[in-house]
Amino acid sequence: MNRALWIVQILLALLFLFAGSLKLITPVEQVAQQMHMSGAFIRFIGVCEVLGAIGLVLRIKPWLTPLAAALLVVIMIGATVVTWQMKPGVGSLLPFVTGILCVFVAWGRWRNVP
Q1: Contact status, residue 61 vs residue 100, Cβ threshold 8 Å
Q2: Which residues contact 74 (CB under 8 A, 6 or more apart)?
């Protein structure tokens, strides 16, 4: 189980690091136009995704990883809803599955917190 959790954590960290970095380095106008949200909010989400990615793999405190995963679940719920509103259908499946994987990590790591 520990090995499966680490594999999912690393994959999620890479995904969130990529997505968050893209939101931070892409010009605000371009991202805001694509996502139909304010540039400041998109930057905020990008920072949260990058910090969440770091929190998934750094084991500074035992409770940090499940907390990071749980907060990323909140972001993925929002991403699923926004994606569903923009394009109903299969397009919202990726954020939904990513959220489920974050739930798996949060649950699996929370069980081992002393």
Answers
A1: no
A2: none
- Residue 29, CA atoms < 13 Å, CB-side half-sphere: 0
pTM of the model: 0.90
Domain ranges of the chain: 2-110
Distance from C-alpha of 10 to C-alpha of 7, rounded to nearest angstrom: 5
Asked whether 100 and 84 are in contact (CB, 8 A), the reply is no
* Neighbouring C-beta atoms of residue 12, cutoff 10 Å: 23
Sorted by sequence, the CB contacts under 8 Å of residue 11 that are 6+ apart come out as: 101
CA 88 to CA 80: how far, in whole Å? 10
The separation between the first and the last C-alpha atoms of the chain, rounded to the nearest angstrom, is: 17
- pLDDT tens for each residue of 70-97: 999 999 999 999 989 888 888 889 999 9
